[in-house]
Design brief:
This protein is of the alpha/beta class. It has one domain: 3-Layer(aba) Sandwich (Rossmann fold). It has 12 helices and 5 strands. It has helices spanning about 15-25, 45, 50-55, 90-100, 110-120, 125-130, 130-135, 135-140, 160-170, 180-185, 200-210, 210-220; strands at about 5, 30, 65-70, 80-85, 150-155. It has a 5-stranded parallel beta sheet, covered by helices on one side. The two termini are about 20 Å apart.
């Protein structure tokens, strides 16, 4: 079995996808890596990005799959690995993050950006201006990494079809009906099912202006 590196960007049904990886390949084959979130200013990629090259990870044995919130540079030295990720329209993504975080208590999570958001009571547009989220794709998660090294970049806007495309590429069958909308399930209408169609034209235009770099990134790489 080929080694798989799965970069879980926020709010793209990554929890559901993790469950499918476990069901298909076996739970003992999947390494979960959520300890080095690039959106966390205290992560290795933010503090000492060169450490990935100074002390390269060349094996994830005994696992065959690693999935989680991490910069792809972390596992760039794995040879012949199949690299995949999913992207979502940045305006929809920031709305989902905003709704999810707004519904949580301050002590829900120790993430510095979340804590700042709660304490400062930021609006949606102010949240979008924070560097870690404003450039979530173009810098935070994929900055300095050649996206040509990915074998699959899915578009969350057509998630079920993209799962089928991924399955064909990997030679497995994903369940297209298993997408656990974690936010919507836990928070009612607020969450990962939200769409920028709910915004006024002016609201969308403002967020699109703020998130221009990430929107350009999304349009360039989605569905590859």
């Amino acid at each position: 079995m080929q080694t798989i590196v799965s970069v879980h960007t926020p709010k793209v049904a990554g929890t559901s996808f993790l469950c499918q990886l476990k069901d298909i390949y076996g739970e003992n084959q999947v390494l979960q890596d959520y300890s080095d979130d690039p959106a966390n200013p205290l992560s290795v990629i933010c503090i000492d990005p060169n450490s990935y090259d100074v002390s390269p990870i060349k094996s994830i044995s005994p696992f065959k799959i690693v999935h989680g919130h991490f910069h792809p540079r972390k596992y760039a030295h794995l040879v012949n690995a199949y690299r995949l990720t999913f992207l979502r329209h940045p305006v929809d993504n920031i709305m989902s993050i905003y709704n999810f975080w707004s519904a949580r208590e301050l002590n829900f999570w120790s993430h510095p950006v979340f804590n700042y958001f709660k304490k400062a009571n930021l609006s949606l547009s102010r949240l979008a201006m924070l560097a870690q989220l404003r450039y979530l794709y173009s810098r935070t998660y994929f900055g300095g990494f050649d996206m040509a090294n990915f074998d699959f970049i899915g578009d969350y806007a057509c998630y079920e079809q993209e799962l089928m495309r991924l399955g064909e590429s990997l030679g497995v069958r994903f369940d297209r009906d298993v997408r656990h909308n974690v936010t919507a399930h836990q928070m009612g209408q607020a969450g990962s099912g939200c769409s920028h169609r709910a915004l006024s034209d002016d609201e969308f235009a403002e967020l699109a202006r703020i998130l221009k770099d990430d929107i350009d990134f999304y349009e360039a790489y989605k569905g590859r």
